[in-house]
Amino acid sequence: MEWYDFNVYGYVAVMVSANIFSNENSVSGLLATFATFGVGFAARPIGAFVFGIVADRRGRKLVMLLSMLLMALASLIMGVTPNFSVIGVWAPVLFVFARLLQGFSAGGEFGSSAVFLTEWATPRRRGLFGSFQQVSAMGGLFFGVAVATVLTALLGSDTMMAGGWRIPFLLGALLAIVVYYLRRRLDETPIYQELAERSAQKKAAEAAAPVRQPISVARGFIVSMGVAALMAAGPFIALSYMPTFTQQVAGVDATQALAATLISVALLLVLVPLSGHLSDKWGRRPFLFAASIGWLVLAVPLFLLITNGQGFLWVLVAQLLFQIPTACLQGTGTAVVSEMFATGRRATYVSLSTAIGNAIFGGFAPYVAALLVSTTGIAISPAFYIMFIALLALVAAFLMPERANQSLQ
Question: 288 Cβ partners below 8 Å, 6+ apart?
Fold first, then answer.
């Protein structure tokens, strides 16, 4: 539900642009909307730093409760903010504030949930357990696309533009509260409980001593940031930005664009845990290499397929093929970043490194994609941005030590 709240913004971006931002110029309004989408990622390193420390000192569960409440509040603000025509510049100001809250929340959510899942897993199932973080993230995307698709089909484009776009935000705020109560029933991870039960004197001595890392912190940060950058940029362009892109260049309407994304996310929900399971058997590095090389090879041809195919079938085929390299990375990425750091400071390092990677390269991916198209006039220009991020992930793959099936420290 937290990732639904965070990502549903992308699926009603055109409607938000027309109502919340000044619509005198449709291109500038859309760019402002995607820039606000990216602002959420700019706040993630701050949330990651604060919540990461809390998760290491007070437990993973507490952070997952706090992050859900903040996300619900942000969605509520988005759902009730009056239009630009009513309150003027305060409308985008409130949206930016809400997006900052979402980013702060997500910065804590990623690290704490990644560590929570992988610390519960046995060494030989850490890839599978970790993959369910991305299953939940893709599930949030799926639910977001489904809600936007159903509402658009039932209410029609005019009604959605007039105010129906608020419903997904209000629904997210309501259901996030339900998830908060469900999370209260969780138990803390055994490995963290064991750490917490040590004497205060021993913990203080360990905190002052050098951290016994499986690899150096700097190397772990580079690997984690590279993985996180592609984990964010690839899906956000191939999924969050794609409904807007295909409506603009591929001759499909809003319902068809959302339906193609919905089907492709459904495929991803199957492939991601399969990827995580296989990485427990074959190792993480082959899947990180496959994801990076796959994006490098497929990005341009698939964008050409969308722009030249001009129809729903070609859009669907391209988006389904996009999910193959995406699944290779999403299924293994959570385990990879968790395995880079030791238990005592794992939540802090995982949260901060992935938040920085997301903020720099992932969060503004839809904005960069829209900006590239509008400034260059080349419809497939977002493919080159994905290829650039894939090169960074390829460097991370070379630097990453293989730690599948090894015990967490």
Answer: 227, 328, 329, 332, 333, 336, 393, 396, 397, 400
- Among all chains, which residue has been given the structure tokens 């409980």? 193
Give the dihedral sign, CA 132/119/74/179.
Answer: positive
Distance CA(50)–CA(352), nearest Å, equals 9
**Residues 181-215: tens digit of each pLDDT:** 888 888 888 777 777 666 455 555 554 445 566 66
pLDDT digits (tens, 9 = 90+) for 333-342: 889 988 888 8
**Do residues 7 and 65 make contact, with C-beta atoms less than 8 angstroms apart?**
no
**pLDDT band for position 300 (cuts 50, 70, 90):** very high
Higher pLDDT, 272 or 374: 272
**Phi-psi region for residue 118, left (φ > 0), alpha (ψ -120 to 50) or beta?**
alpha
Paired tokens of 254: 């809003």
- How does pLDDT run across 97-108, given as a tens digit for each residue? 888 888 888 888
* Inter-residue contact 74 to 99 (CB < 8 Å): yes
* Axis-axis angle for helices 2-11, 126-159 (nearest 10): 40
**Segments making up each domain of the chain, as ranges:** 2-399
Q: Report whether 339 contacts 408 (CB < 8 A).
A: yes
Give the homologous superfamily in CATH for domain 2-399: MFS general substrate transporter like domains (1.20.1250.20)
DSSP secondary structure of 15-26: HHHHHHS--SSH
Backbone angles phi, psi at 313, to 5 degrees: -60, -45
Question: Which spans in 121-165 are helix H?
Answer: 126-159
Measure the CA–CA gap between 401 and 409, rounded to whole angstroms.
15
